[in-house]
């Protein structure tokens, strides 16, 4: 998994805004990328809602925020509508971006081993370097912690 001081790999992914998002095109704004396993699951819903609730504060601090999962655009659209999310979501259907950031990994649940997204967040500064990385995120209070890190840039 990438860590602080690594250069963030550039990518272009489709977004729920209807346009593709290219990471390097967002410079010099800081960017928050939160990777989550699946739409409409309890932890992912809670995390996405917390980022949505604080989106105005992230924007006031000059930062852009995006959630990323492998779910397709139809799933993202339903997730946004059902949960009244304001944070834009990106689709990484082939897990290419997840692999580049090191969040596509072997996981275990109920005695079974499978590949999936490890919940992680990255704060990328205006030069494209990772300023902060949060591996294996615990959802409660996480979005507020990331906001404080954005304000400290």
Automatic annotation (TrEMBL):
Listed CDD domains: PRX_BCP
Domain spans labelled Thioredoxin: 2-153
Reaction(s) the record says it catalyses: a hydroperoxide + [thioredoxin]-dithiol = an alcohol + [thioredoxin]-disulfide + H2O
Domain of life, source organism: Bacteria
Biological processes per GO annotation: cell redox homeostasis; cellular response to oxidative stress
Alphabetized UniProt keyword annotations: Antioxidant, Disulfide bond, Oxidoreductase, Peroxidase, Redox-active center
One annotated GO molecular function: thioredoxin peroxidase activity
Enzyme class: oxidoreductase
GO terms for cellular component: cytoplasm
PROSITE patterns: THIOREDOXIN_2
E.C. designation(s): 1.11.1.24
Purpose of the protein: Thiol-specific peroxidase that catalyzes the reduction of hydrogen peroxide and organic hydroperoxides to water and alcohols, respectively. Plays a role in cell protection against oxidative stress by detoxifying peroxides and as sensor of hydrogen peroxide-mediated signaling events.
Family per record: Belongs to the peroxiredoxin family. BCP/PrxQ subfamily.
PANTHER family the UniProt entry points to: AHPC_TSA FAMILY PROTEIN, THIOREDOXIN-DEPENDENT PEROXIDE REDUCTASE
The protein's name in its UniProt record: thioredoxin-dependent peroxiredoxin
């Amino acid at each position: 998994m990438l860590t602080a001081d690594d250069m963030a790999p550039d990518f272009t992914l489709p977004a729920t805004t209807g346009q593709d998002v290219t990471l390097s095109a967002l410079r010099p704004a800081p960017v928050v990328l939160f990777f989550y396993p699946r739409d409409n699951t309890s932890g992912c819903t809670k995390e996405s809602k917390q980022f949505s609730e604080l989106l105005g504060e992230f924007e006031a601090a000059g930062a852009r925020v995006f959630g990323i999962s492998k779910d397709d655009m139809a799933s993202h659209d339903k997730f946004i509508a059902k949960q009244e999310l304001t944070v834009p979501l990106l689709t990484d259907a082939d897990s290419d971006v997840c692999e580049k950031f090191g969040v596509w990994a072997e996981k275990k649940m109920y005695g079974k081993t499978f590949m999936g997204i490890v919940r992680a967040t990255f704060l990328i500064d205006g030069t494209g370097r990772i300023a902060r990385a949060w591996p294996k995120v615990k959802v409660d209070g996480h979005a507020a912690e990331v906001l404080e890190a954005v304000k400290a840039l």
